[in-house]
Write a structure and sequence with these properties.
- The structure is a homodimer of 133-residue chains.
- Helices cover 0% and strands 36% of the residues of chain A.
- Chain A is built from no helices and 8 strands.
- Chain A is mainly β and 133 residues long.
- In chain A, the strands form 2 sheets. The first copy, chain A, has a 6-stranded antiparallel barrel. The first copy, chain A, has a two-stranded antiparallel ribbon with strand order 4-5.
């Protein structure tokens, strides 16, 4: 079975480290740019300003060995299995980001609000409105 | 960079082929079972009946070479880039399934409504309510 991820591009963001990012895009995410690999340009057809999309990233700064964490990093809360949290530290650190497209220029897609750090690999973009698309 | 996916378990479903499944869980998905690999049991801590989760799968029956498709397989609709659709055929066939847990028994999580086919590899489970978790 072919389970090798293809990196379709990278996030360009003013957030440079995990420590400075909010937990979720809706909690202080910023405008950022998705730089799509030219090989996948055709797959962008149909995306436009105002489109609501679900971006999937590979959170490369995560620790994949964690099975339990303090929810939201709050040590006053008891540890819980990562599958019942949104911690980036998990066996497969796939980031799930609902964002809106604020502009497109060639292979560059401007989105808001994103909490991913600069250089985060992108693995998928999906239409946010599944039943219509 | 470590981008090798870890398979955390498999879906067990009465849907055996792509041709018999609905496009989305909310369009006729059924109750199905997530069989979690014993190595990830600890990561399940905190999940319970009634929990709303986002399941990520690896849609192994997808064709990863497609960059454009007819939306919803409807040939009367013009082809569009896969990133503006929910087609399973895409560079990284990550399935995104919002489901509710209807029961847990050891390493088996019963969920509803799921449209994934029997044997689909599982790659992640996330709490559906990001800001609280």
């Amino acid at each position: 079975m072919d389970t090798e991820l293809k990196i379709i591009g990278y996030a360009r963001s003013d957030f440079k480290n995990r420590s400075e990012t909010p937990k979720q895009g809706c909690e202080g995410g910023i405008e950022a740019v998705l730089e799509i690999d030219e090989a996948y340009l055709e797959a962008m057809d149909g995306l436009k300003e105002g489109s609501e999309i679900i971006l999937l990233t590979w959170m490369h700064a995560a620790d994949r060995s964690y099975l339990k964490v303090h929810p939201r990093g709050d040590e006053t809360r008891p540890k819980r299995g990562v599958f019942s949290t949104r911690s980036p530290d998990r066996p497969n650190p796939v980031g799930l980001h609902p964002v809106t497209i604020t502009g497109i220029d060639g292979n560059k897609i401007r989105v808001h609000p994103l909490e991913a750090i600069d250089g985060t690999p992108l693995i998928d973009i999906k239409n946010a409105y599944s039943p219509k698309a």
